[in-house]
Amino acid sequence: MEEFRHNGRDFEYCPDVDTDMSKQIAPRRKKNKKPLPTECVFCRNNGEEETYYRKHLLKDIDGRVLCPVLRAYTCPICGACGDDAHTVKYCPKGPYNPNAMSTANAFKLLRNSTGKRRSK
């Protein structure tokens, strides 16, 4: 009991407690509930042959582009290619359609917080 009062630990009941506090605990990653992709969605949606789009993935787990077709593409807006390649639709420098309304704002116009239709 005296040990617990002194440092907050009772080694009699917790003998395997590590006293080295200098070790840092790695942060936990969120569990992704989506299954891992088995094919390149970019090539599949662009009409490539099944044997081709099943040979590679669009991106790796760190978000780097793996698709050879997309890697070779250079964004005309920002000039990104390679690991950071993207189409004009996904360019972070500017929206593809500046007059488009975000999905969240579109839903706000239709219904209120209780789900009832808003009166105009």
In DSSP terms (H or I, runs of 4 or more residues), the helix count works out at: 5
Distance between the termini: 70 Å
CATH architecture of one domain: Irregular
What sort of overall outline do the alpha carbons produce when their principal axes are compared?
extended
**How would you state the average pLDDT, rounded?**
77
Measured as a percent range, the helix fraction is 10-25%
The total count of strands amounts to 0
Q: Return the structural class.
A: mainly alpha
CATH topology of one domain: HIV-1 Nucleocapsid Protein
Radius of gyration: 26 Å
**Sheet of most strands:** none
Which percent band covers the strand fraction?
under 5%
* Helix/strand order: HHHHH
CATH-level-4 superfamily name of one domain: Nanos, RNA-binding domain
Write down the CATH class of one domain: Few Secondary Structures
Contiguous low-pLDDT stretches (5 residues minimum) are none
What would you say this structure looks like, in words?
With 120 residues, this protein is mainly alpha-helical. It has a domain at 41-110: Irregular (HIV-1 Nucleocapsid Protein). It contains five helices and no strands. The longest helix is centred in the C-terminal third of the chain and has 8 residues, at 103-110. The radius of gyration is 26 Å and the shape is extended. The relative contact order is 0.07.
